Amino acid sequence: LPGLHIFAITLALEVSVGKTNTVMALNNSNVLLPCVFTTCIGFQDLVFSWYFNTTELLILPPLPLQIYQGKIKNKATEPTPIWHNPRVEFVGSTTKKDNNISIVLNGVEFSDAGKYTCHVKNPKERNAQHNATIFLTVVHKMVETDNTVTLIIVGVVGGLIGLLILFMLIKRVVLFIIKKTQDGKKECLVSSSGNDNTENGLAGSKAEQKAPPKA
Fold first, then answer.
1. For the chain, what is the domain count?
2. Phi and psi, residue 115, nearest 5°
3. Which of 35, 86, 154, 194 could join 118 via S-S bond, C-beta 3.0 to 4.6 A?
């Protein structure tokens, strides 16, 4: 059916900002906003845009909410900018393996925190459109991760393992001493038993050597 055919083509275009859709940046630093797109049937005169706190496709001249717009003729050519905010730098490439349309926002300010949307429109797929959103947080300073609890847990676990090993060593030593003691007692018992038998045997032979009393 024609409707199903159009629906399948629409699903062929996908846009992604990576495994996580959150980015944290230090105030006055430069931050990368990643974005790639994939298409099963290729692209022709593809248009991509970046928007700040909106997902609407804006027309030229660009409004302040649109921070970058570019066009890609085909897979063999690199993107050409149509319009961009002076603080935005394009760092992607479409002639390599990934169709990378990432940008860098220079001199990040606290007012730059918010939602950034990467939007793609492919005329070759009957003007199919798709977008992905990434959220930027701007901080005064990066918070260092407190590993105190982790170190305590590691120390406790290590201590328990050490105690277990020590206990096993002590157990081995004790069992070795007990075994040696038991072996020594057995030797004494065997030696004592042998002496008694010898004496009894000698006494018996002397008694047998005596002549019977005369009547």
1. 1
2. -100, 130
3. 35
| 165 occurs within a structural domain | no
Task: Judge whether 103 lies within some domain.
Answer: yes
Q: Which two tokens stand for residue 185?
A: 């007692």
b/e code 64-81 from CB counts within 10 Å (16+ = b): eebbbbbebeeeeeebee
- Position 213 in a domain: no
**DSSP classification of residue 9:** H
Q: What is the pLDDT along the chain (215 residues), one digit of tens a residue?
A: 544 444 444 458 999 999 999 999 999 999 999 999 999 889 999 999 999 987 555 544 455 589 999 999 999 999 999 999 999 999 999 988 889 999 999 999 999 999 999 999 999 999 999 999 999 999 988 766 555 655 666 666 677 787 888 878 888 888 888 877 776 655 545 555 555 444 444 444 444 445 555 54
Is residue 150, in this structure, part of any structural domain at all?
no
Q: Whole domain around residue 69: which residue ranges?
A: 14-139
CA–CA dist 74, 155 (Å, integer): 58
Whichever domain contains 87, its CATH number is 2.60.40.10
DSSP states of 160-181 as a string?
HHHHHHHHHHHHHHHHHHHHHH
Q: pTM score, two decimals? A: 0.60
Q: Which residue's structure tokens are 């905010």?
A: 85
